[in-house]
């Protein structure tokens, strides 16, 4: 039986630059903390700048003298103008980018629209990240061993993508359906991005796209969940359900392994190894048949380009100024 992957497996990340969206709380904050603790320069890309700055301050201090002070960039994934401004700010500050962790998200919201008129789950969880990744792609392509890690969810397995009704204008709106569609979109995006990277000759030599899900993790994402779920995942109760709910630090292990394990390949998907993939050690897992539908992957990509106005350029870039070698770990 192989030894479970833990953060003890993470090597020296000095000289590497990582952008983590939604890093002020939950899974994103835990991912950022591990990256920073191992020497990476971490950019906390968050909608709430004050909370992000507070999170950044907790990552540095007298007990962590070797941690590079994290950077904070304002990013509202529900507003494409904000996405473009954040990408411009990151590009201005960082000529190379080793890791982009598309972590931020919303879950089980009542019907809402983004600033650009998109159904909010799709707009924040998928379209905002699609645009951000495309706008930072040249920084990734120019950095050998770089990775795009996008967080999906166990919920993608019940997701149904309706390309002709992505925003629930004809379907009856249900928060769970909107959320699971967006999480399915995260995987469709990852697999299509990896296919396009391979077609451009980038896989292995430079950039790969991978995905992960945190299982059942107790985070602020639960705040819009039904009352019975909020009770079950509250501090007094979640320790009674170790097979179903884990803390954010354990939920961060699958995306961390996807980001840092040298054995990870483009198109891999990581999640917990426990019952139903709700808790446990991070391992490679299998996503739903719907996530591997090539027509859905291509269709969603084309529609995402149309909606966001961001078209990806896979032209190979000259390697950025080296500040480390190989994969991020």
Automatic annotation (TrEMBL):
Gene3D superfamilies: NAD(P)-binding Rossmann-like Domain. SUPFAM superfamilies: NAD(P)-binding Rossmann-fold domains. It comes from the Bacteria. Pfam families: adh_short (PF00106). The keyword Aminoacyl-tRNA synthetase does not apply. GO terms for molecular function: oxidoreductase activity. Keywords: Oxidoreductase. This is NAD(P)-dependent dehydrogenase, short-chain alcohol dehydrogenase family. It comes from Jiangella alkaliphila.
């Amino acid at each position: 039986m192989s030894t479970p992957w833990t953060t003890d497996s993470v090597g020296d990340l000095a000289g590497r630059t990582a952008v983590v969206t939604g890093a002020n709380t939950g899974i994103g904050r835990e991912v950022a903390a591990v990256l920073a603790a191992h020497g990476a320069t971490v950019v906390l890309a968050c909608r709430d700048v004050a909370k992000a700055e507070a999170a950044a301050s907790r990552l540095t201090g007298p007990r962590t003298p070797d941690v590079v002070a994290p950077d904070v960039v304002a990013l509202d994934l529900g507003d494409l103008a904000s996405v473009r401004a954040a990408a411009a700010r990151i590009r201005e500050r960082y000529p190379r980018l080793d890791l982009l962790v598309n972590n931020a998200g919303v879950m089980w919201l009542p019907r809402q629209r983004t600033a650009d008129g998109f159904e909010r789950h799709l707009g924040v969880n998928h379209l905002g990240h699609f645009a951000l990744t495309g706008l930072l792609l040249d920084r990734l392509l120019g950095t050998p061993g770089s990775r795009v890690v996008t967080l999906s969810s166990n919920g993608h397995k019940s997701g149904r993508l309706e390309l002709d009704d992505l925003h629930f204008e004809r379907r009856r709106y249900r928060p769970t359906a909107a959320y699971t569609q967006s999480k399915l979109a995260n995987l469709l995006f990852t697999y299509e991005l990896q296919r396009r990277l391979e077609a451009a000759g980038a896989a292995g030599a430079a950039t790969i796209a991978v995905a992960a899900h945190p299982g059942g993790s107790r985070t602020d994402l639960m705040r819009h969940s039904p009352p019975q779920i909020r009770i079950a995942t509250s501090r007094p109760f979640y320790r009674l359900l170790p097979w179903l709910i884990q803390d954010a630090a354990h939920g961060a292990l699958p995306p961390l392994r996807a980001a840092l394990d040298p054995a990870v390949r483009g198109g891999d998907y990581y999640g917990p190894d426990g019952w139903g993939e709700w808790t446990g050690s991070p391992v490679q897992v299998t996503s739903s048949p719907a996530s591997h539908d090539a027509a859905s992957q291509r269709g969603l990509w084309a529609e995402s380009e149309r909606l966001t106005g961001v078209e990806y350029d896979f032209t190979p870039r000259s390697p950025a100024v080296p500040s480390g070698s190989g994969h991020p770990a």
